[in-house]
Amino acid sequence: MSWINKIFGTKKNKEIVEQSVAKITNAELEFLINREFPKNTDLVKSKLNEIRSDSQYGKNRISAAVLKIANSDLTKIDFLITKANEDFRDIISEAEYPRVSKHGFGERNEKELKTDNLNDWTEYTDWKNKKRTHNNV
Q: Between helices 77-86 and 41-48, what is the axis angle to 10°?
């Protein structure tokens, strides 16, 4: 058995638990910046431009993750961008998969993992789709 099958299993012996992946358009990112930092949009856009990624899709996804974790706190942006440029997976997992990322491989059974994935995705989409933050109500 390959190491991949040992970690993730095979379709024969268990159902594969999939995680949803955020897709952030340019328009959605613009909305998120304006919602999270209405008084500092130009500054935040300039800072987010420092994020390194091989694609615009990746840059948008990482930028949205930074915005979510910053929770409308401008003082957190620089640190989060630095962290994202060191290893973007840390930022993505914290923003999109907070419950799942707290546990190592094999620590959760399939039902728990499905529940965590669903709760993580619900939390992320609720954040992404809300109209206003607490700072700009």
A: 20
- Cα separations (Å) of 114 from 4, 16, 91? 19, 10, 21
Residue written as tokens 């840390």?
A: 90
Beta strand spans in 11-98 (E):
none
Q: Is residue 4's pLDDT more than 90?
A: no
Say if residue 70's pLDDT is above 60. Answer: yes
- Could you tell me how many residues make up the chain? 137
Q: For residues 113 and 84, which has the higher predicted lDDT (pLDDT)?
A: 84
Contact (CB, 8 A) for 34 and 40: no
Per-position DSSP letters for 39-58, written without gaps between them = TSHHHHHHHHTT---SSHHH
State the pTM of this model: 0.80
